Amino acid sequence: MKRISVLFLALVLLSNQAFAALSPSNIYTIQSTATVGNANGGGFNTANPNFLTDGAITSATGSSPVLTSASYSFTSADVGASIWLPAQTNVISGFFKIASVNAGAATLSAGIGAGSIVGQGRYLVATTAGVGTAASLTGITFGVDYSQMDTSPFADTDIASSNGSTAPAQVTSASHPFTVAMVGNLLRVTAGTGFTASWYEIVSVSGGVATLDRAVGTTATLSNGTGKVGGALSLGSSDANVFNSTLAVASSTGSAMYFIKGGATYTLSGTVTIASGNALSPIKIEGFSSVRGDRPSVASGTLPVLNPSTATLTLGNNTVTRSVKVIGSAASVINFGNSASLLDSSVYNNSTTAGRSGITTNFNSLIRNVEAVSIKGKAVQVSTSNNAFSIIEDSYLHDSDIGISVGGNSSVVILGNLIIGNVTGGIIGSLANTGFLDIRNNTIYGAENKLGTGISLVTGSLNQLQFRNNILYGLATGASGADVNNFIQDNLNDYFNNTADVNDPTKWQKGNSDLALDPQFAGVAQISGTTATTVTGNHFVQAGATFLSSGVTPGRDFLYVISGTGVTVGKYGIASVDSETQITTDIAIAADSTPDKVWQITTGKNFAIGTNLKAKGAPGNFPGGYTTGFIDIGAVQRQEGGGTTILGSCSSVY
Fold first, then answer.
1. Please, is 401 exposed, middle or buried when counting C-beta atoms within 10 Å of its C-beta (0-12, 13-18, 19+)?
2. Which CATH fold topology does 523-606 show?
3. pTM over 0.90
4. What is the Cα–Cα distance from 339 to 587, expressed in whole angstroms?
């Protein structure tokens, strides 16, 4: 019986080896200039245990340190690759590009801002020069990451194996023998006799033979294998399936990470779903501008743009996505999985079909520092599922039909947001809301000539609503309730320049501490007209207008067509300002020569407040009477003594 048990255990272990997965410590690089078709290796395992350990670095504290190794002589093929330095004594852990190679020695680019270093639980841009804290370092562990290059320096068509169906398999190449510098890189096999096309980690190398992480084929003898070591992933139209569970491996101690190079648009094909991470260690997707970890802002214009077109980008369970821009026209451009987060990003649904969403949340969703627009629909659709929970904070939700759509037995915290210029309204109930709504420190703005409703609840909303420290400005109706005696805590909100502050005081009772003060916005204005025409080419023309001198800004400002012959009313993004009297929209607007188009544009969009609302918010005096708070009302908190106004609690400036 004991022998049978041992045999069974052995078979189980062999089976597990045969189906081993890639490491959850892999980092993947996606670049628009990479070889198309995702034929490159694309990834690197920072936790590989077999890196070289005999590195010697001179001038280690300077901007051009020199690395040598007794086990490996660097060649010109290594230029452009990155040296990975794990955590070790006197070493700054991170990635540093190889700038040049001379006589087997690699000179690294390690000036201020050049390295991507480990710190604060993530990758940061180096703020000091060098790769270490001592000028001369010996006995250094290092790897060579080829996945940050556009093309693979090692492309083979003669990969072979004599134990291909064994885990782990070993492979060789006569034209490009594997080197010890390749350890930790992924080998992308795309074809070959008996080979299984996939990505494989090079776990170790000895005598030109690479040992992989698992079996690489269906039979022992494999030949004529086509594959590449290194080179970034491309994420092009027909190869968007790089976020699947083959590459996006997750565990409780670490999960895969993707860096996407900015300054380019990636056109995706079909529905793209990011695989689920682990609750303790989510899958991470992060855009970067020039150095991994630089986390460009939405306003920088250098975010990587993902365009799934009419399909949906789904963020898997336990994922964190940041510093990306997503443009599409699906029913929802982004769908959240459970416990998914979207940070420091921009989402634009440019569909002309009504009711579509920029973002749709799920259970335990987080939206932070995000710009979201759905020109004919909802910037954010909060999940209506029972017991779902969402947090929306420090975000800019604007120029949509609805800013945030809420309802159902779900709860949501809406904190510190600019909810601006939405046609129907800012926060609108689509279903009876029976969950908890915590809505604080938002600026809900319609237009100078009044537009939409600030917040509206539908009948049957037995919700507990905490509504305080909000600015409601320029709205046809500030707040609208549907039923008498709803449990609404309205306190220390500022209602100003609205046609009506509330729809019915028996259904929405303003608090005794509410204010009616001009927030004195720092830079918000409106231009309008009533006799515009439209011309073929999506041109909008208004005689006597001052689009240029009024500061209308393409990519930031939106045209609102209120009425007119032959055109669809609603919001239009402004693609260009052609002259004082002509702008061009970013979506189709029908040509019609009848001069009767009524329109308006909000410009400036600097919602920093003046002194009227300074320190007027709650809480003022804390319980006990020993501490007094000084919170401004609205999303934008004043920064006294010069500097920049801050949106909510985040450090990003709009």
1. buried
2. Elongation Factor Tu (Ef-tu); domain 3 (2.40.30)
3. yes
4. 34
